[in-house]
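Tokenised fold entry reproduced for absentees:

. . .
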Amino acid sequence: MLRRVLFRLHWLFGLTAGAVLAVVGITGALMAYESELSRALNPGLLTLPAREGSPLTLPQAVVKARAAMPERAVTFVTMGTDVTQPWRVWYAWPPGQHGTGSRGELRLLDPMTGTLLPQPRGQAFFATVRLLHRTLLAGEFGKQLVGACVIGLVVMTLTGLYLRWPRRIADWRGWFTIRWSRSERIRWRDVHVVVGTITLPLYLLAALTGLYWTYDGYRAAAQRLAGQPVRVTAASALPRHTRHKSHEALDDAALTRVWNTFSSTATQVSTATVRVDAAHNGRAEIEWLPVDARHERAYNRTDIDITSGAVVRNERFVDKPALQRLLGSVLLLHTGRYFGPLGVVWMLLAASMLPAFAITGWWLYLDRRRRARASTRSRAASVSQ
């Protein structure tokens, strides 16, 4: 009875969530190599020529960015020590408009001259792919639908593992054998279950990390489990009058104090992201990546008082507890980059297989229906004779 219930649950989720998961898988596969594809499409833009001289300071960069688009507020700036890499500047969305980024509209800035660079080719395409991956281009409803289907993926992987559990668990042939010489139905079933077994850990990892951005309660529970304060992500591009009163704008003098303090206290900085449109409780928040960072999300955090220029918080990624470091790496776990280039390849292949699971699952379901109807007609014919 349990096996029958789990089997029906497995194919029910597969038939209903399969199409959505196929879209999520295809878009996820594209997103896995977004950085590499963007650099290939923009060789002279995302990699600038090496030049002599010193790059701009934070106050100088903000002045240049504000002058380039005076009608828009600068919200965040990401600066780097490698002057061949453009800096990133985010502008608040115009009134009545809100794009895909919570920080605002992303633009690139030449670190030597402060000139805004042209929009990279493919940027709009990948923005649409990300939105399709997260919301199916259907807003909050699409986001919740994707979340429900991701939960369905967890159910399918666990029920599928139970249903195909071999009698002899230590016999590897029972896990990975595809009987190519048998009937078409058996071959398709073997392909479905063997590939599902291989990709099962990757699907569980992608699903459990993907839910982190879908449900606030899930994210809060993970943060509590890791022993860190529950942080509510605020839309940085909200109009200034909608922000909390504890948020104060950083003027040029405050930016200078903040930058002077950060430059004198932080060492071996690779990149630094500064929120320049507001300071929470009088503090400027800076996330920065050291040169010897374990990975691209291993951010240190420094909070600086905008009035006195004193450091009020200095948090290093390597000093965090293991669960907090893991939680800080959730995006890399989701994409496979946490495990290096090979991890990205494996996650890419697993994501690409989701449409194949939808197709084989439907084929097996329709084949069962066809054989059931044939069996019913055969019994009816026997009774009539």
